[in-house]
Specification:
By secondary structure, the chain is α/β, with parallel strands linked by helices. The chain has helices spanning 16-27, 86-93, 107-120, 152-155, 176-179, 182-190, 209-215, 255-258, 263-278, 283-287, 320-329, 348-354, 368-375, 387-397, 419-431; strands at 8-12, 31-36, 51-54, 65-68, 98-102, 125-129, 145-149, 165-168, 201-205, 221-227, 234-238, 241-246, 249-254, 301-306, 309-313, 334-339, 358-364, 380-383, 403-406.
């Protein structure tokens, strides 16, 4: 990327993405100023040669390029001559095809599974992006393909980004506090497909017309996934098995041999199989990797079982759609722990889902009153202050055969750094209840 040599670049935000972007830019000869309003000293890994500014953001108009972290809203970039996110920088520097996965829920799980599938198919694949490792960290690695989880925030700052395979898993309202409307949120997700050409592949759920319309924004070949089959290309659960069609090939697999426990896992697997087929990987070899893929933490994770009560951690359920999926996935009756920072979402669908399944909803955090108003009349509600108290209250309410489920339907930032810290706190609070069996 010769255009970076000598350029004055402002990096805003020094989390993992910003620190990696700073290092990437310095290595390519840019003059980098990196700032973070929350920090007072440089984070680990910030390279020598970066001018660090803390407590304020310099004028973006004074730089040739601004590289914002995903959490920086567009209005903070007024006056900037050029804006590119870390995802766009990585795409321009990577010499290998990119498989990009987005959606409201299930991104990290699908990316992890797809990485294993592609490796089983004989490709040197590495997962990165929004699930933890910044995409620029893959530049310079010996790879055949990069598998990236991408968020709506990251897609706001792409320019030439064009994945060889783009996957949209699902779409339900999320991050409306940032995007303002569901239409704007969907439009951001749709940027994944806009620059795709006929030689590229778009993967989308067969039963979702909004996702299919977004996938058709470009000119890519469309592969679908879901339940049932109409003979089109893609991956489908059908007649007790899985059918994968790509080009002239049709592969049939048994659902049982994939080792899947929930309908959500099946949907994610179908999407990954369609993406692998679209990339030309042997589907049977790819499918053989599925049972060995470790489930990610904080996603329908059984923490403990004691006195006939199961404690399940789904702290990653940070929106309404994810909480709905969690409520449907666990055995009932449910004692449901929910709450946190409101993201501007409509909690209404949760009342219908809870009615008849949830014995009691224990609500905590900044959104507890709004949740309580929404759930009133549908389920017994108890309001508490924090997560530790919520776990104790849920344990008191639970009976043998119940599932105590943490599925917050909210962001974690009112009380925790992220959903991982919230999940860890849930685990600790469950352990503190007394003797439990993991």
């Amino acid at each position: 990327m010769e255009e970076l040599a000598g350029a004055r670049v402002l990096v805003i935000g020094l989390g993992r993405s910003g620190t990696s972007a700073s290092r990437f830019l310095v290595e390519r000869g840019a003059q980098v100023v990196a700032c973070d309003e929350r920090l007072r000293e440089p984070p680990p890994g910030l390279p020598a040669g970066v001018e660090a500014v803390f407590g304020r953001v310099p004028d973006p108009a004074s730089f040739d390029l601004v590289v914002p972290s995903p959490g920086v809203p567009r209005e903070r970039l007024a006056g900037a001559r050029a804006v590119l996110g870390e995802l766009e920088l990585a795409f321009r520097a990577l010499p290998v095809p990119v498989v990009a996965v987005t959606g409201t829920n299930g991104k990290s799980t699908t990316v992890t599974m797809l990485e294993a599938m592609l490796r089983a198919g004989g490709l040197r694949a590495r997962a990165a992006g929004n699930l933890g490792l910044p995409a620029v960290e893959l530049c310079g690695e010996a790879l055949d393909v990069a598998v990236l989880e991408v968020s709506s925030f990251q897609l706001e700052t792409v320019e030439r980004f064009r994945p060889a395979v783009g996957v949209l898993l699902n779409l339900s309202p999320d991050h409306l506090d940032r995007h303002g409307s569901f239409a704007a949120y969907a439009a951001a997700k749709g940027r994944l497909f806009e620059r795709q050409g006929p030689e590229d592949v778009a993967v989308a759920p067969a039963a979702d017309p909004i996702c299919l319309a977004l996938a058709r924004r470009g000119r890519a070949r469309l592969l679908r996934f879901g339940t049932g089959s109409d003979g089109g290309e893609g991956a489908f659960a059908h007649a007790g098995g899985v059918v994968v069609r790509a080009g002239s090939r049709t592969i049939r697999l048994g659902v049982s041999e994939l080792g899947l426990a929930t309908p959500v896992e099946l949907e994610n697997t179908l999407a990954a199989l369609a993406a692998a087929a679209g990339l030309g990987v042997d589907v049977e070899r790819a499918a053989a990797a599925v049972p060995g893929v470790a489930r990610l933490p904080h996603r329908l994770e059984l923490v403990a079982e004691t006195g006939g009560v199961r404690f399940v951690n789904d702290s990653k359920a940070t929106n309404v759609g994810a909480a709905l999926a969690a409520l449907r996935a666990v055995p009932e009756p449910v004692v449901w722990i929910a709450g946190g920072q409101d993201k501007g979402l409509d909690f209404g669908p949760l009342a219908d889902a809870a009615r008849g399944r949830v014995r009691r909803a224990v609500l905590f955090g900044a959104s507890r009153d709004l949740l309580a108003e929404t759930l009133a009349g549908a389920v017994d509600v108890e309001r508490v202050t924090g997560l530790d108290e919520a776990v104790r209250a849920a344990a008191r309410a639970a009976r043998p055969g119940d599932t105590v489920l943490l599925a917050p339907a909210c962001a974690s930032f009112d009380e925790f750094r992220n959903y991982e810290e919230r999940g860890e706190r849930f685990r600790t609070a469950v352990r503190n209840l007394g003797e439990v069996q993991p």
